[in-house]
Amino acid sequence: MHSHSDPHDHAHACCAPSAAHAGPGYRRALSVALLLNVALFITEMVAGVQSGSVSLWADAADFFGDAVGYALALWALGAAPIWRARLALAKGAAMAGFGVLVLLRALQALLTGQPPEPVTMGVVALLALAANLGSAAVLYAWREGDANMRAVWLCTRNDALGNVAVVAAALGVFGSGAGWPDLLVATGMAVLALLSARSVIGHARAELRQHTAPANAG
């Protein structure tokens, strides 16, 4: 029995699709997108440390959330619905943790007043943008699919906007010599990550209640 869910919730959950009714082509596309997101998560975390850019950390957190969502979709093909809900809950908690970490890192950067290195920041952000465009390209054929498939497409497309924001922050740091453009973008992205985490956690908890209710009733 399939659980009932609101497509709007899936859009908020972002990249946690159900591929149960998809063909092998869609599964391959999800696998490619998963590998791209894992690679860029690692790259941006390392580059964020080396350049001192907090917005790269925030963008890395976004890649992490997407990678977990893609992995969740692939793993859930043969898993019970309750396990998918449990994994989604773990994903939401991890997203919230990253959001808090980015905010703390932004506060630390604000107190030290040290601006990030804009060239590394901009180059890596452009690489991340290319990766998201690559993900969007492989998922393009399924953009008009069911609510879950469309949520993945919209999520990937919207992530590219976050990459553009980091590029803009790098240009702002380069032009001003100050760190505030990086901190402004990072804070905005961290807040969005926390809001998304809240939505994911709420949706996962609702599904857990739905799946455990029959057992409790029995």
TrEMBL record:
Classification via InterPro entries: Cation_efflux_TM (IPR058533), Cation_efflux_TMD_sf (IPR027469), CDF_Transporter (IPR050291)
This protein's UniProt keywords: Membrane, Transmembrane, Transmembrane helix, Transport
Entry keyword Transport: yes
Primary localization: membrane
Organism the protein comes from: Roseateles paludis
Limits of the Cation efflux protein transmembrane domain: 32-201
Pfam families for this protein: Cation_efflux
Subcellular localization, as worded in the UniProt entry: Membrane
Protein name: Cation transporter
SUPFAM superfamilies recorded: Cation efflux protein transmembrane domain-like
Keyword hit for Transmembrane: yes
Topology of this chain in the membrane: Multi-pass membrane protein
Segments traversing the membrane: 29-47, 67-85, 92-113, 119-140, 160-177, 183-201
